[in-house]
Write a structure and sequence with these properties.
The structure is a single chain. By secondary structure, the protein is an all-alpha fold. It has helices spanning 3-13, 32-45, 53-68, 74-97, 102-128, 132-135, 165-171, 173-184, 193-204, 209-226, 229-249, 251-265, 268-273, 279-290, 295-313, 324-331, 351-373, 386-405, 414-450; strands spanning 18-19, 28-29, 149-150, 156-157.
């Protein structure tokens, strides 16, 4: 790996240091620096990818329209649009830099994942033996965004180089998919047994609800790809068992699930806090509700409410990139709890909710078509093309987890993964066509020999 590779992949694995530039309206991560430098290098080296114009022009046009009708502001829109456009163009150039060799790119990602998993295990082991510099990296590194997280059965939740265990759970989900597959199906297409174990153990030690979602998605994708009914009946009970173990043994996971049930199923906020009441009565009821919900569960519930209400008002094109923050001011339920959970207003705590709110049906349909059109499933009985379906499904895990619980469009190189997903399908189509032509030639030769 050279310095260009390092600059490209750094954004996927490290978000612990932010350059707080007051003149900028957003957090400027240190990993943006190599992106900006390399972008100028790529612009000089490659032609502009004109195929991206339709997407960018569509986002620009609908965004400006929403600004004109006061659904959005110029500042909010261009802050998100420019960031998204830069990431889309940059990572499209990255694909060209690597000659669209998704297999090579994915192997480099797995190497980085293995490295941060090793660091994560060192972090947990250091905590267990009370070696503070080994788990609290702020003691020797200037990490103003990073911190270690208390919890789990060992007293610490693994987050490695990521600011939170949930970010680790999302970003390492593709590596976990590969590790679980190769360990249990005894393959070594990408990883050897030792690396598989390291990645799986590190992933479990996050004690993150998002990581556990990644596990459930992985198991279900195995069932989908192996197709046979027996695999489905194996996968679903396994997912239920894993859920039960996590719910019983991991407090952080349990309180989040209980909070989700209280909010989404029982409707505790509307039942307990709706209507007129005295200040004292409201405070008493709020304290009662707070014992039954978790902060992160309410944040998701609150943003779901905001996104749905905003979608009702702007169903076709949404209210424009960056506008969920404004919709949050209109529709959020924080006032019912005294405003203590005023979080994730800009990113909706879920990319699906943010897309629903900001891009409407246009965005939701695009995502659905993108996932289904460029998906590669396992060709049962064929081993030669195994890497294609593995990469496709592995990358799909991060797409799904991001849609569920991570609302930042570009965080940790998410756009990079979407390009890997797309070009993996393009490469598979070319491979399939090549194999088809080779088979036809062999048939012609055989027919000529018989005649």
């Amino acid at each position: 790996m050279n310095w260009v590779d390092f600059g490209i992949f750094l954004n996927l694995f490290f978000n612990g240091y932010v350059l707080f530039l007051k003149q900028l309206p957003f957090e400027f991560y240190i990993t943006y620096v190599p992106i900006i430098i390399l972008l100028f290098f790529f612009i000089a080296k490659f032609r502009f990818p004109r195929e991206l114009l339709f997407l960018l022009v569509t986002l620009l046009g609908t965004g400006i329209l929403n600004v004109l009708i006061d659904n959005d502001t110029l500042g909010n829109f261009f802050k998100i649009f420019i960031n998204l456009a830069v990431n889309i163009i940059f990572y499209r150039y990255v694909m060209e830099y690597y000659n669209f060799d998704v297999n090579k790119i994915f192997r480099m990602y797995l190497a980085g994942s293995y490295f941060v998993c090793i660091l994560g295990l060192i972090q947990v082991a250091s905590y267990m033996v009370h070696f503070e510099p080994g788990y609290n990296w702020r003691t020797f590194l200037p990490l103003n965004k990073w911190n270690f997280h208390i919890g789990g059965i060992f007293g610490i939740r693994l987050n490695s180089t990521y600011t939170e265990p949930s970010y680790f759970g999302s970003s390492i989900a593709p590596a976990f998919f590969i590790a679980l597959y190769e360990l249990f199906f005894r393959r070594e297409v990408f990883l050897n047994k030792t690396k598989c174990i390291v990645i799986i153990v590190a992933y479990l030690l996050t004690f993150s609800s998002l990581a556990y979602i990644g596990i459930f998605v992985t198991v279900l994708l195995f069932a989908v790809n192996y197709g046979a009914l027996r695999y489905f009946f194996f996968a679903v009970p396994l997912a239920i068992i894993m859920f039960s173990v996590a719910y019983t043994n991991v407090k952080d996971f349990k309180v989040r699930i209980d909070g989700m049930q209280a909010l989404f199923v029982d409707g505790i906020v509307e039942k307990e806090l709706s209507g007129e009441m005295t200040k004292g009565a409201r405070m008493l009821r709020v304290s009662k509700v707070l014992t039954k919900i978790h902060g992160s569960s309410f944040v998701l519930y609150n943003n779901t409410h905001v996104a749905v209400e905003n979608f009702k008002q702007n169903p076709i094109f949404g209210s424009g990139l960056g506008s969920h923050e404004l919709a949050f001011e209109k529709y959020n339920l924080n006032y019912m709890l005294g405003g203590i959970y005023d979080f994730n207003a800009p990113d909706a705590n879920s990319m699906f909710l943010r897309i629903l709110s900001e891009l409407g049906l246009m965005g939701v349909i695009f995502i659905f078509l993108y996932i289904t059109k460029f998906y590669v499933s396992k060709n049962l009985g064929v081993q030669e093309d195994e890497s294609y379906w593995l990469i496709s499904n592995a990358v799909l895990t991060i797409i799904i987890t991001q849609l569920l619980r991570q609302g930042n469009y570009t965080f940790n190189g998410f756009i990079f993964f979407t390009f890997m997903y797309y070009y993996n399908r393009i490469n598979y189509n070319a491979y399939y066509e090549r194999k088809k032509q080779e088979a036809e030639k062999e048939d012609e030769i055989e027919l000529a020999r018989l005649n």
